[in-house]
Every structure is written in structure tokens, then in C-alpha cells.
Design a protein that fits this description.
209 residues, alpha/beta, Rossmann fold, two-stranded antiparallel ribbon, 29% helix, globular, binds S-adenosyl-L-homocysteine
């Protein structure tokens, strides 16, 4: 159920769903997804579904993880990436394969501890996790050439826009009932917004827990 063959079937499905970036696909093929979910769910880890990770939160479905990674990577190599919403750390692990440095912020303390455990198992050294309110970003480490928000925002947080490097890209789901994935590209003079597709995420909340 958790074998290399199962992972290869997941990759074939991602290609059918339109994921084209080989670097993203290779990252998805190299990280075991089942270690990020509870043992009782591990047989479902490679299905294209989101699964519960506790505290009312979910691990995103493989398609959306791949899609957001592919969009973020469209300019090629990523140096410094900020993720808001670590959850169980799966998207963080994928990012660590496609970026030099990954910073990930989570507001629920026990989830950060879970993610730390999973990522330690994989011995990933270019990841730093922080327990904080991600709507504020990480000003002390800005600017970032990629920002990925894995919870749905009611509006795009101003602090995150300010921490995006010129030439950088942000992917963020926006909306409450109906959510749309947005790409924000920062140029010398503006923030260019592109609507991508309908998505379903847990809400981005303020404060910590
Ligand atoms: N990236 C995860 C998705 C986890 S679900 C994955 O790979 O599966 C979204 C996560 O965002 C939840 O864990 C939730 O607690 C977190 N979150 C919501 N609002 C947040 C905020 N303001 N700051 C940081 N994390 C937040």
C-alpha cells in the first residue's frame, strides 16, 4: 500500500491531471506521503484526497500540493520560500526538494511538534519551522522569492505582500464559501494577480493556539 509502485501510480495520476513540471513530479515521487498521516490512514495516503491530521486540520490532496509547487517554481530555482500553514509538514517536505531554504509557520503548537517529528525522520536540513501567526509572515527573514499559503484567506494579508521579493511569486487560496487559488507576481511597479482555479482549504485564522 505504501510501496514505490503506489507512489508511481500517484505520479501517473498527477500527470493525467496536468502536472508537467518534472522537478515537482520528482519531488512528489521521492517523499513518502504515508509517514505524514496517522497509521490508520496510511493505506489511503496516496489517494487524491485530503485527509484529517487532527485539530480540525487536513493534509492537502496530492494534486493541490503538486499544483502549488509547480506554480511557485515557474521561474526556475527557488532560493528562499515561506510556507504559511505547516500542518503535518508534507508540503514543507516537497518544498525542501525544490528550494534552497524553506521556512514554514504554523499556528497550532501540537501540529508543529508532529511536523517536526515527521521531518526529522526524513533528515531534511534546509527547513525551519516556527510556531506563530503566519498572517504576519516572517519579517526578520524577508524578502522571500516564493510564498505559499496553504489555508484560505478572506483577503491577501498585506504583511505577506510586503515580504515578497521583486520578481517573486505567491500562491494563495482566497475566499470563504467559494475559494479561488491566486498567483501574485511582484514586479518593480506592481503586484500582478492571476486567478487560477477553484480550491477547498481550511481557513487561515489569526493568532496562535
Ligand atoms: N501544508 C499542509 C496543509 C495543512 S492545512 C499540508 O501539506 O498538508 C492548513 C494549516 O494552516 C493548518 O494546520 C492550520 O492550523 C494552519 N493555519 C491556519 N491559519 C494559520 C495562520 N494564521 N498561521 C499559521 N498557520 C495557520
Amino acid at each position: 500500500m505504501t510501496s514505490q509502485r503506489t507512489r508511481e501510480r500517484m505520479l501517473a495520476r498527477l500527470r493525467e491531471q496536468g502536472i508537467k513540471d518534472e522537478v515537482t513530479l520528482s519531488a512528489m515521487g521521492s517523499i513518502a506521503r504515508h509517514i505524514f498521516v496517522d497509521e490508520a490512514l496510511s493505506s489511503r495516503a496516496y489517494e487524491d484526497v485530503s485527509l484529517p491530521i487532527g485539530f480540525g486540520q487536513t493534509i492537502s490532496q496530492p494534486y493541490i500540493v503538486a499544483r502549488m509547487t509547480e506554480i511557485l517554481r515557474a521561474n526556475g530555482v527557488l532560493d528562499k520560500v515561506l510556507e504559511i500553514g505547516t500542518g503535518c509538514g508534507y508540503q514543507t517536505a516537497i518544498l525542501s526538494k525544490v528550494a534552497k531554504e524553506v521556512y514554514s509557520v504554523e499556528r497550532i503548537s501540537p501540529l508543529i511538534m508532529k511536523a517536526r517529528g515527521h521531518l526529522r525522520e526524513l533528515r531534511m536540513r534546509n527547513i525551519k519551522l516556527k510556531h506563530a501567526d503566519g498572517t504576519l509572515g516572517l519579517p526578520e527573514l524577508a524578502p522571500f522569492d516564493g510564498i505559499i499559503v496553504t489555508a484560505a484567506a478572506s483577503h491577501i494579508p498585506q504583511d505577506l505582500l510586503a515580504q515578497l521579493a521583486v520578481g517573486g511569486r505567491m500562491v494563495i487560496p482566497v475566499g470563504t464559501e467559494e475559494q479561488i487559488l491566486y498567483l501574485i507576481e511582484r514586479t518593480e511597479t506592481e503586484y500582478r494577480q492571476t486567478k487560477l482555479e477553484a480550491v477547498k482549504f481550511v481557513p487561515l485564522l489569526g493568532g496562535t493556539n
